[in-house]
Amino acid sequence: MNTQKYIPLVARTFIALIFLQSAIGKITDFPGLVDTIAGKGLPLAFVMAAGTIAFQLLGSISLILGYKAKWGALLLILFLIPATIVFHNFIADPSQKIAFLKNLGLMGGALMVIAYGSGPLSLEPQAKTGLSEAE
User: Fold this and answer.
1) SS3 call for 17
2) CB of 50 closer than 8 Å to CB of 33
3) pTM score, whole prediction
4) Number of domains, the chain
5) Which residues contact 29 (CB under 8 A, 6 or more apart)?
6) Using 50, 70 and 90 to split pLDDT, how confident is the model at 1?
7) C-alpha atoms less than 13 angstroms from C-alpha of 130 in its C-beta half-sphere
8) What residues contact 88, with CB distance under 8 A and at least 6 apart?
9) 23 vs 30: CA distance, rounded Å
10) How far apart are CA 26 and CA 82, in angstroms?
11) Half-sphere exposure of 30 (CA within 13 A, CB side)
């Protein structure tokens, strides 16, 4: 029995679960999320909070299903970059170093999906590398 075909599905799911759980938590305490974003001095906190949830939900569901997984991974990276810089600045707060490094690891996993595709057990198996379907 060849179990190797299951590895990309398991990897995508493991990467996605943290974002899915985070999005659910943000939905259940949306006012708290808005306050947290506003507390960092960021403008349009309501819009940023809604965008955060949308990126996390769309990206994680895309990865789990393997449908447009490369684009889902890109959404998660686009969420992670500012979130990591603003909320996990370990230079200003050394206690954030592990969270910062965790986010780098998640970005690495998402980059692997972008580079190698979603794998054979997905709604959209792809053999190509990179984001473009027309390469």
Assistant:
1) helix
2) no
3) 0.89
4) 1
5) none
6) confident
7) 4
8) 96, 99, 100, 103
9) 10
10) 17
11) 10
In a domain, 122, yes or no: no
Q: How confident is the model at residue 2 (pLDDT cuts 50, 70, 90)?
A: confident
Task: Assess contact for 126 and 67: CB atoms under 8 A.
Answer: no
The distance from CA 35 to its chain's CA centroid, rounded to whole angstroms, is 22
Could you give the CA distance from residue 2 to residue 63 in angstroms, rounded to a whole number? Answer: 22
In a domain, 92, yes or no: yes
With a CB cutoff of 8 Å and minimum separation 6, the contacts of 65 are: 122, 123
Structure-token pair, residue 19:
């974002």
41 domain residue, yes or no: yes
Amino acid identity for residue 29 in this structure = D
Token digits of residue 88: 């996990």
Reading phi first (left if > 0) and then psi (alpha if -120 to 50, else beta), residue 130 is in left
> What's the domain range around 24?
4-116
d(CA 4, CA 61) in angstroms, rounded, equals: 22
Residue at 35 is within a domain: yes
